[in-house]
Write the structure tokens for this entry.
Amino acid sequence: MRGSVNSYLSKTANGICFDGIFQGACIGQNITGYIFGATPRFADGDWVETSEVVWVSNILSCGWYAETKTGSRYLLSSVEYNPTLPESSRSVEAAMEQKRKHIMMNEQYFRPLIWSAGS
């Protein structure tokens, strides 16, 4: 039997499971986009840039999420496609698979930065 998301994921630096949800995100070294559900740190719809993304994964009941170097975890609901950027993708799944591949290819760099038990 599967546990809940709360039992699967370790807490973020802010003591919660997710620090917000990105919409219209651009995923590269970090994430930029509009954030929601991140109060009191940010107002809904604020444009935010995260620290470096060090891990990405998917939970079937929630979707794709990214973890940052500074201990935050964000869900991603949509990405902004920009054909002028080589790392830009048309879907969250494609963008996150591309980022996961990048992390795996550079495991020696990323492994010491990964902080969560879910990774």
